[in-house]
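Supplementary Methods, section 5.1.

A reviewer requested that the exact input to the structure prediction be made available. We therefore reproduce it here, unchanged from the version used in the analyses.
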Amino acid sequence: MYEGNNTGVTEFVLYSLSGPQELQLFYFAFFTLFYLSILLWNLLIVLTIISESALHTPMYFLLSNLSFIDVCLSTFATPKMIADFLVEHKTISFEGCMAQIFFHHVFGGAEMMLLVAMAYDRYVAICRPLHYAAIMSLYKCTGLVVGSWITGVLHSLSQLVFTVNLPFCGTNKMDSFFCDLPLVIKLACTDTYLLQVLMLSDSGLMAVISFVLLLISYSVILVTVRHHSSVSMAKAQATLTAHVTVVTLFFGPCIFIYAWPFGNFPADKVLSIFYTVFTPLLNPLIYALRNKEVITAMQKLRS
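The structure derived from this sequence is encoded token-by-token as follows.
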């Protein structure tokens, strides 16, 4: 489509969280603490599920993979952002920028598909309990996880293959803490309307469809348990409320950023930080640390 990046642009400047030195040191301490918390809780969940045989079930197998993806999603850009708080010139090489775009969409796409798989698991467990063991076999769960990663890779390559060869000859400054695809496209010295449409039909549509499927599955579950006891209904409502909260906090920023790529909103960088830094910490808090079986297994592991 394009001749390639032969225009001399070798790096990009990131300046979304710039400010006085005191503020930079505060950012450094704050995001370092957050990042370490993400690593600690998510890796602890993975270790707990692996070490406790009672948690070797489809639900916890998917949950451990979600925690692993959260570690990856927070790692592709956060350490670079934290290191940039200690330097005056916040730059990233062209190759590093393309790598961030690739891994961002691999991990983001994989997490979307995994959240859909987890909703499917809950649907089968509640709506078809007698067939749960046969439907959610180890082979099926492994296929769902592998399929999530394959979808993430294909989703990322479908956009990067056009972005990497864009010509850049003007400004190389981005108001973001990492190379976000909509911002990189806007820096190209060519008409990128078709590429933005591709991004809308790929990232935006993928996020919207996944979000709608999740809401439909949760609605079906609530309708199913409505005919059960009030205790079952209350428990299902509490569980699904937590799940809907996580899903909304993850998909909301993605839909806002990638379903309207033609605009340039000041809130975009805040939302980018939210779903790449804050959401990976919320997932273990809502999905796992409110679960009595996980808490018991953690206490057992500690002793």
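Residues 1-6 have pLDDT under 50 and may be disordered. These observations are discussed further in the main text.
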